[in-house]
Design brief:
Helices cover about 65% and strands about 0% of the residues. The chain is mainly α. The protein folds into two domains: about 70 residues; about 80 residues, SP0561-like (Orthogonal Bundle), CATH 1.10.3910. The longest helix has about 60 residues. The termini are far apart.
């Protein structure tokens, strides 16, 4: 009789453990689904933030061009500088800013912060960049920017 009671108790405990295991698996699947949704939302926020920075930089560059006050400043971001003139990337590569993995720059980082981090004089960089938009007035006391050929590389995955 005690053996039968022990057997029934063991079966009840085994059934309860199986039920807990099923609930745990269901909770794990739900948690995976929530994690995927959270990751997707985070990725979408990152893309929206990138689009916001791109639009803001484009509007700032367009404002400068429409008001005919195109000039590079130390507070300007790399993205804004790239939008103001097509040869900015070449000039920055001549200063060893951007263009390779060891000197990569963030597009939303100001020019003065990048120069400070690399140990460069921001005034030399700004003067060289300003030669691109007005070589007659901005380039008198600054050395001519060295042109660096940027390779055209296209990666198809």
């Amino acid at each position: 009789m005690v053996a039968w009671i022990a057997l029934i108790a063991t079966l009840l405990v085994a059934g309860y453990v199986w039920k807990l295991h099923q609930e745990l698996e269901m909770a794990r699947r739900r948690l995976d689904r929530y994690n995927r949704a959270l990751f997707d939302a985070s990725d979408e926020i990152r893309q929206l933030r990138e689009a916001l920075h791109e639009t803001g930089a484009r509007l700032h560059a367009e404002l400068l061009q429409r008001t005919h006050t195109v000039a590079f400043t130390p507070e300007m971001t790399v993205r804004e500088a790239y939008l103001l003139h097509p040869q900015v990337q070449e000039v920055m590569a001549a200063f060893h800013l951007g263009g390779c993995s060891s000197c990569a720059v963030e597009p939303d980082e100001p020019l003065d912060a990048i120069c400070r981090r690399q140990g460069l004089d921001v005034n030399q960089l700004v003067a060289a960049l300003n030669q691109l938009v007005d070589p007659s007035t901005n380039g008198r006391d600054a050395p001519a920017p060295k042109r660096v050929k940027i390779p055209n590389v296209e990666l198809n995955f």
